[in-house]
Q: What sequence folds into this?
């Protein structure tokens, strides 16, 4: 390669890098560096300046790569909150007044001009109280704007709110009808909750998850310090200290283990109020748990789902892509699945008995292939598509009526915007659902503040603010409903007495706000009754 052409190439690249970093240089440097670049292209620089130029070029190239990979030029942004747009009373009045009244019906709205009062849904009030969704989320400066770094570090970095030695922790066990043993851990609160109520968070962790995962420990540490009791499910086959007594592992959407834990905890703490919380795959499970049997929702105040994929079939297709290295993450998770199966001889033996070719399973390079060769056949499904469909929560989201918060990150390399149309559609349709999109956070990372080492976890603040607001709002709604019911019952009782009276027994029914008076003609004939 000729030196001149090489010089021209480096000079061109230098100018490109210089334009990219214009905002980072003082005005003097902006005037000086182009002169060096021009002189180098004409080969007018002495040897020592040539060396300096090479060093500066390398440094700028490294910074340019950091900028592209770590997004150092991006600033923190407030999350995007999607909710159903409620029609105001004025809008409904205008729409109703334009409609022609039916035959024989009076246009009462047009005559009175009164505005239609619409009740604000509790979810609107809850989200209004959560300042964390209105503030700017500032990830850790140097690497926090990279979804890949956030995703990789969430599993290996000790988060600020780690729950070791902060609360009493006890393991509990529940036996399922097929004799499988489900384990869960209970953390008691460090102080009473600010509401004075007994509040329990029922956590379902992500894939291969248990109570000792870093993201779970972070939430436990923060929540126990705020007065919450934490109960965390340990997925079947994950913990080494819990023997797998049946050839059964967890799946993406089987809610039997979570349901058994919830039933047991509700027996243990009958006076507590409950909130359901799921991470990633656990978010899929808790939404399916609440939606497939809506009567379960009566025992819950609210629910949260963090970084889930909603539709297993679409997730399997998306994890074949390479635009955000999804296929690499899928390969890593597949190897973990294979290792988990091989760790339990009872599962391996059953797989052979059910006609599964282990060589095909070992050759899987993605979750889709693994579930095709192993999961769908192991659990007796006719097809891969049926297995994935029945394990998805997307078909149950519209049956959830309690306040439900769905959170996903746009830069999540596993569950990115490719699937956000599902929660967005539900949030636009149902008043009880809010979908929050953060620009950064990766998959369950959400490290916040700090230059190189994070000082906070944004996700913990979001979870606790939402839970506090839900407890306060729903408690007020319940109290108001009881008061209204009591008033309606009293009024109905007097109205029934009035309706059952004969014309000769009663000649006046007087209603004055909360006072209802029935006057019998036998006792009052000529006296005047004044009601203040």
A:
């Amino acid at each position: 390669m000729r030196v001149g052409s090489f010089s021209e190439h480096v000079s061109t690249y230098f100018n490109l890098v210089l334009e990219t970093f214009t905002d980072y240089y003082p005005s003097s440097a902006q005037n000086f560096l182009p002169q060096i670049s021009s002189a180098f292209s004409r080969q007018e620089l002495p040897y020592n300046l040539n060396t300096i130029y090479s060093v500066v070029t390398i440094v700028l190239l490294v910074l340019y790569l950091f900028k592209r990979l770590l997004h150092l030029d991006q600033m923190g942004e407030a999350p995007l909150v999607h909710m159903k747009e409620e029609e105001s009373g004025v809008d409904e009045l205008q729409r109703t007044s334009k409609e022609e009244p039916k035959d024989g019906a009076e246009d009462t709205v047009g005559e009175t001009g009164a505005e239609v009062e619409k009740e604000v849904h509790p979810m609107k009030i809850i989200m209004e109280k959560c300042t964390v969704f209105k503030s700017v989320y500032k990830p850790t400066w140097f690497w926090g704007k990279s979804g890949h770094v956030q995703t990789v570090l969430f599993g290996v970095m000790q988060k600020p709110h780690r729950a070791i030695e902060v609360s009493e922790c006890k393991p509990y066990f529940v036996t399922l009808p097929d004799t499988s043993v489900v384990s869960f851990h209970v953390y008691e609160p460090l102080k009473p909750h600010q509401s004075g109520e007994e509040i329990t968070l029922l956590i379902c962790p992500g894939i291969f998850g248990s109570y000792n995962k870093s993201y779970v420990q972070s939430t436990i540490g923060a929540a126990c310090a705020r007065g919450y009791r934490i109960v965390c499910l340990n997925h079947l086959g994950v913990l080494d200290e819990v023997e797998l007594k049946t050839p059964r592992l967890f799946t993406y959407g089987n809610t039997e283990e979570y349901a058994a834990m919830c039933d047991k905890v509700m027996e243990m703490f009958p006076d507590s109020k409950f909130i359901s919380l799921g991470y990633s795959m656990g978010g899929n499970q808790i939404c399916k748990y609440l939606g497939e049997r809506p009567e379960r929702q009566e025992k819950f105040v609210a629910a949260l789902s963090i970084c889930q994929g909603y539709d297993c079939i679409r997730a399997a297709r998306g994890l074949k892509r390479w635009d955000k290295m999804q296929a690499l993450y899928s390969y890593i998770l597949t190897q973990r699945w294979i290792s988990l199966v091989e760790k339990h001889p009872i599962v391996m033996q059953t797989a052979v008995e059910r006609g599964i070719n282990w060589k095909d399973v070992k050759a899987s390079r993605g979750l889709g292939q693994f579930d095709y060769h192993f999961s769908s056949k192991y659990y007796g499904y006719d097809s891969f598509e049926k297995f994935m469909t029945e394990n998805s929560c997307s078909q149950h989201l519209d049956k959830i009526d309690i306040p439900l918060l769905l959170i996903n990150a746009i830069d999540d390399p596993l569950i990115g915007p490719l699937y956000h149309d599902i929660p967005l559609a539900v949030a636009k349709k149902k008043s009880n659902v809010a979908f929050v999109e953060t620009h950064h956070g990766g998959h369950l990372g959400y490290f916040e503040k700090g230059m190189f080492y994070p000082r906070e976890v944004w996700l913990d603040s979001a979870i606790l603010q939402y839970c506090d607001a839900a407890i306060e709002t729903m408690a007020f709604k319940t109290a108001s409903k009881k008061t209204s019911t009591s008033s309606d019952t009293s009024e109905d009782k007097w109205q029934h007495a009035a309706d059952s009276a004969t014309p000769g027994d009663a000649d006046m029914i007087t209603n004055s706000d909360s006072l209802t008076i029935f006057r019998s003609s036998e006792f009052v004939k000529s006296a005047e009754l004044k009601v203040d």
About this structure: The two ends are 104 Å apart (CA to CA). The CA atoms of residues 4 and 41 lie 8 Å apart.
